[in-house]
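Consider the following input, taken from an annotated entry for Peptidase S1 domain-containing protein (Mytilus galloprovincialis).
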Amino acid sequence: MKTILFICLLAAVFADPRATFLSRIVNGQEAEPNEFPWQVSLQYWSEANLRYSHICGAVVLNETHILTAAHCVEHDPTVSKYDIVAGEHNLNIQSGNEQHRRLSVITMHDEYTSSGGYNNDIAVLTLSSNLMLSPTIVEKATLPEESTQTFTGKTCQISGWGRTVANEALPDVLQKANTSVITHSDCRGRLGITGLLYLNRGDSGGPLVCKVEVDGKSTWVLAGVTSWGLADCPVGSPSVYARVSTYIPWIWGSNVILR
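Applying the prediction step yields:
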């Protein structure tokens, strides 16, 4: 029997500021190649290893823009330090489907804050050259309507390269897991306002997609961007995601032009 993870979709995030960096897709299983064509690996240059290494997930918005969590890029705004890899499946094996792109602009939400919580934990990354989109390898995510849609009770999935078991190394192969979106009141009850939190390093910035009807067709829609959860991931505790529908005006707005 598959374990169902609990998910909270929030705009204004409540969180204890004492955060540690962990990464985990609990009870995840390997995704099939190209199963999540909107999934991106955000990689950062390591001076120690003289190579780019995966630090966060991200999501394809269109040929020139990527969506991720603001906390993934706040530590260093230097665009040359980052590599975007779309079409990635196994971080250590080149399949020929990978598309590497550099960044030209990093735009964090202007009301993002990591002190006292991770409010507005979302950022748009502008690429220096276009991605080549295709329906099965690299494809833009379907965005939700501009609304307060909560996706409560919908069939949802998360994906990323986070740990599937505590204290193990990050997996090379993209992982996935089924999820269940819960209400805000349930979320607050399960999380509380205090307690040590973790930011999902490895999974952070990656997609939460939920299956909904779009123009009469069942479609995976980008519901959330991975943000944080409780340390040690106790049974029944939810993970928290930035609710994408809340940020549609900002994404399409004058400061982050995608159209």
